[in-house]
Amino acid sequence: MGMEMNLLDGRAAVVTGSAQGIGLAIATVLARHGASVVVSDVNAEGAEQAAADLEAQGLKAVAVPCDVTDEAAVEALADACKSAFGSLDVLVNNAGITRDATMPKMTLEDFKKVLDVHLTGAWLGTRAAARIMREQRRGAIVNISSISGKAGNFGQTNYSSAKAGMIGLTKASARELARHQIRVNAIQPGPIRTAMTAAMPPEALQKMLDNIPLGRIGEPEDIANAALFLASDLSSFITGITVEVAGGRHM
Questions:
Q1: Disulfide engineering: 170 pairs with which of 118, 186, 219, 239, CB 3.0-4.6 Å?
Q2: CA 244 to CA 140: how far, in whole Å?
Q3: Helix crossing, 157-177 with 108-115: angle to 10°?
Q4: Of 97, 93, 89, whose CA–CA distance to 116 is shortest?
């Protein structure tokens, strides 16, 4: 591991929804590049386990359980990172849920809940992190949106709305925070190999692959590597953009 491998030496990062899946992959890649990572999840046990696994690999991690829809909890999460590691340099707003149904079958509660976790959660996280990052005169915020926020998914009026909303949040907060040297960018993952896609019927999966020019499903690491780029100084002149990590789908 030469110098070029440690893009985040001395930095501290918070990743929400990082007990598993894409969030855990992001936390792992950031930690491998020298970041001290706060593994945060509404699943406290899962967060503890993930942080312990990272520590077992010789990486720096602590677990802080957090419900991203709880304003006080999100503020405390940002403070916990600062007190554990001395700074808060990177925030990845990754926490999310799905409550899929067509509109006639979707309850108002299921619509609001999905917006609350993805969009309100990302807003609360951005506001809390920026409070600390402003004093440091540096910081990078990465919002994990989705290609369904660009293309719209059947049965996901709630999820697609929330994920599109995160792009507007990214741009507006990038404008507000630029004068404090805080960058805000978004990633729109396409189909990624997770528990959710693993459960798909083979024919549905094949139909999806047919629409991906690069001819494969994405790996959680594909998203994590894009997050690493946006979190690091490699992207120091990049703010307010959306990176599609989708193998060319919906380009």
A1: 186
A2: 18
A3: 30
A4: 97
Cβ proximity of 103 and 160 under 8 Å = no
Instruction: Tell me what the mean pLDDT of segment 68-72 comes to.
Output: 98
**3-state class percentages of the chain: helix first, strand second, coil last, to nearest 5:** 50, 15, 35
In the predicted model, is pLDDT for residue 180 greater than 60?
yes
DSSP secondary structure code for residue 219 in this structure? P
Query: Which neighbouring-strand residues pair with 218?
Result: 192
Active-site residue (options: 29, 156, 159, 169): 159
pLDDT > 60? residue 97: yes
User: What are the domain boundaries of the chain?
Assistant: 8-240
Contact 15, 30 (CB under 8 A): yes
- Is the pTM higher than 0.85? The answer reads yes
Cβ atoms of residues 234 and 35 within 8 Å: no
Contact between 153 and 110 under an 8 Å Cβ cutoff? The reply is: no
Look up 159 and say whether it is catalytic: yes
Return the SS3 of 185: strand
Residue 74 tokens, joined: 């999100």
The yes/no answer on whether domain 8-240 falls in CATH 3.30.565.10 is no
Distance CA 56, CA 161 (A): 39
Alpha-carbon distance of 199 to 202, in angstroms, equals: 9
